[in-house]
From TrEMBL:
The keyword Transferase does not apply. It comes from Oceanobacillus halophilus. InterPro entries: Teicoplanin_resist-assoc, VanZ-like. Pfam families: VanZ. The keyword Nucleotidyltransferase does not apply. Keywords: Membrane, Transmembrane, Transmembrane helix. This is VanZ family protein.
Length: 151
């Protein structure tokens, strides 16, 4: 019964991720631009640029607080469950190195798909926050409490 619940919760989580990452209300931004122009206009390759903008906005009130909170904490929390599900389903990535490499590949593929399909942008800060969230989830996965709970 426990495995069935975990499987069902994983499918629900994946469906929620797909909606959030690809089917949300973002729409096609700058759809009249060529793909190269779109990539130039919608990408951030400078680490911590977006993060620092949001943190500054939280302190100086230059932005509605919902925006930085949703973006910072949303990106952190979004992949936290993956830190538990991935090693649960793929026993080979039960070590932090294998998990980290798998998540880097997965997150990079997601960012590129969002960019190419124009359902979002490539933002290295999203990548960083998603990775941190996944690693927190992996840390939770490694706790004795979770290991005992899932056996």
């Amino acid at each position: 019964m426990k495995k069935i619940l975990i499987n069902i919760s994983f499918v629900i989580y994946l469906l929620a991720l797909i909606v959030l990452l690809f089917l949300g209300s973002r729409g096609f931004l700058w759809s009249d631009l060529s793909l190269i122009e779109y990539i130039k206009n919608s990408s951030n390759f400078v680490p911590f640029k977006t993060i620092s903008t949001y943190i500054t906005a939280m302190f100086d009130g230059s932005m509605n607080m919902d925006i930085p909170i949703k973006n910072l904490f949303g990106n952190l929390i979004m992949f936290l469950p993956m830190g538990i599900y991935l090693p649960y389903f793929l026993k080979r990535i039960n070590k932090v190195s294998g998990f980290t490499i798998s998540m880097i590949i997965l997150l990079f593929v997601i960012e590129v798909i969002q960019l190419v399909t124009r359902r979002g942008s490539f933002d290295i800060d999203d990548f960083i926050l998603n990775m941190v969230g996944a690693l927190v989830g992996f840390g939770i996965w490694k706790t004795k409490f979770i290991q005992k709970l899932l056996k």
